[in-house]
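Input/output pair, single chain:
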Amino acid sequence: MFTAGEIAERIRTGQTTSREVTEDLLRRIAADTEVNAVVEVRREHALAAAATADAQLAHAAHAAPAARTTPAAHTAGTAPAAPAARTTSTAPTAPTAGTMPTAGTVPTAGTVSAADTVSAADTVSAADTVSAADTVPTARTASTARTASTAHAVPGGRTVHGGPAVEGTRLGPLHGVPITVKDCFDVAGMHTTWGNPAFADFIADENAVIVQRLERAGAHVVGKTNVHTMLGDFGQTVNEVFGRTNNPADLTRTPGGSSGGAAAALAAGLTYLEYGSDLVGSIRLPAAYCGVYGLKPTNGLVPERGFQIPGTPYVPSELPRLSTIGPLARSAADLRIALRATAGPEAPYSYNLATPRHRNLKDYRVGIVTDHPAAPVTSDVGDALSDTVDRLAAAGVKIVDSWPSGVDPNEQAEEFGRQVELFFALHGGEPTTMTVDHLLTTERNRLAARAKWQRYFEDVDVFLCPTSFTVAFPHGSTTIEGRPYEAQVFWIAHASLTGHPALSMPIGRTATGLPTAAQVIGPWHEDDTAITFAELLAEHLGSR
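Output:
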């Protein structure tokens, strides 16, 4: 199956149409009775958006050179495509919008311009309401996925008729591409359940910032993917609203969590691009287990408005936020496209990713650790990593076989556990018993850990290690290969603690066809250095 970037190029060059691509994707989603990854679709909206994309492309072809491709930064563009409208009186009140993402400061590595304001058209989120007959099953198979109706209303009671104006429309890098997003992001007119029956009937009436930006880049959201209940598990995806998601490589095994639906949908060919969230590896672990790419960006790089518990207002916080949102894809290039479209502070700013340190694989200096007693890798994972390292060395890549100076991997993994406890206490979970002195010490430890890794990245460009010690394991496991379930966290903990960008990439398959993966950690706010290395490594390995 094509990547998002490849299908966008085929649409732009007239080899296919957005309508054809969208219809084909909807057919595949409807036919799935095994993976159960896409749990809600909005067919009529998707087809209308595809028709608008095709009309925009036809107009651009006749009006060239007036129409041009949107640049890498997510500058102001056109409003998302909309289907024929009908009003509704049952739309819920919109969550209060925040004014700035948690990490509100401008990243030093990127370029920010206050002059790039967002137009009024970009601030309106159209809401696709759901009909009263649209009920929520307690546990569904893919063939019974609920479908959003064609209603299309804007918060405040105003109705939008048709799609955006075709004339003068810029064609974004995802023009005409149908995508899905994790069922924790608000999409106007669709349910946001977080896999919790208490929110089974909640319908969002405003798009999350990342949805707005992906639509401005030309994509249209056709559906939402399954999550673990309240995003509460990094190793599996199951809930009482939509049931269990299975790994496409082996239906008896987990796709990981909590973005298991996102990763499984990509692996099964049920979407072209996804967006997930990562607190305790919830992007990287599912990506590893399903054999796709998943990026946890630099913490705070992507605005989180529209990613909050249903019905609660978005409240920006200056307190440390370990949770990060980022893309999942079938190629490293698609991660770059998605991150360029979504990264940076909210309006009136724009943002450009820092350029990668190198564009040739042999120029990279790669720190490598392939095993550790705290989470010894299985033979399948170890063999794949060893082969990857050998091939890097053969390509002339400089290998530095060590952890950063001064880093105690066990100590940092344990510190991450304390940070997660504090995170939940600060965001409505169980109150912490930590004293003020303990809280201050914890914060100093987090920042000290980041500084140690940053010093390391003065001499090394990326760090390569396992994403998990294991491949995907059977559903319902409480131990894995005789080790504690929580051992999955060890390898993802270090980038989560420090906030550095980290991605998981596929590096092979076991003899039984299960994906193996590596994790690439990059310097602070140099996300594209990690992405570009993964892209070059995949090319060298003979994959995407």
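The radius of gyration is 22 Å. Residues 361-541 form a domain with the Amidase signature (AS) enzymes fold (CATH 3.90.1300.10).
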